[in-house]
Amino acid sequence: MQVHLPLSCGEAAGLDRAGQGIGGIGKTTFATMLAKQVRHAFAAVFWRTLRNAPSVENILKSYFASDERQTDWPKDLDEQITSFITSLRQQRHLLVLDNVESVLQSGQRPGQHLVGYEGYGQLFQRIGETEHHSCLLLTSREKPKEVARLEGTTAPVRSFSLSGVTQADGQKGYPQDVGSL
Length: 181
Known about the structure:
Elements: E1 2-5, E2 15-20, H1 27-38, E3 44-49, H2 56-64, H3 77-90, E4 93-98, H4 118-129, E5 135-140, H5 145-150, E6 157-161, H6 167-173
Parallel strand pairs: 2-6, 3-4, 4-5
Antiparallel strand pairs: 1-2, 1-6
Helix pairs in contact: 2-3, 3-4
């Protein structure tokens, strides 16, 4: 299993990482265990599953739903992403997007976004290219093309493979309510 995680998560810069691997290998469990271990370093933890393929606009809106500072929600996706990144610069947040493969095409065009979900590509690209103090953790069966383009050993975007999480470790690390992070 691969987990794509940007390296800046533990550093002053933004951490963008991605994890990838076959289904059932423990990507969500790993992300949960990691989030529990590092959550003290962040002002907030924002965790969303993409299993039911929500639009990127809905994900961004849910992020800002509890932020009273965001009074005028932009209609344009580019402006929404800009507002989101501004927030990532203002406070250090851990952002986890689980099951990213739900918005990716499988098969002949791995890493490509499904029609109508290209906005996730814009989001991943902008977060990976922009300096901030937050961390984005993606879990997926496939590596999004933006991660593949931006990753490198000295780049702020990294990915890695997991060989699997044991059942005992999984039972210890997976909370009943992921929202309790």
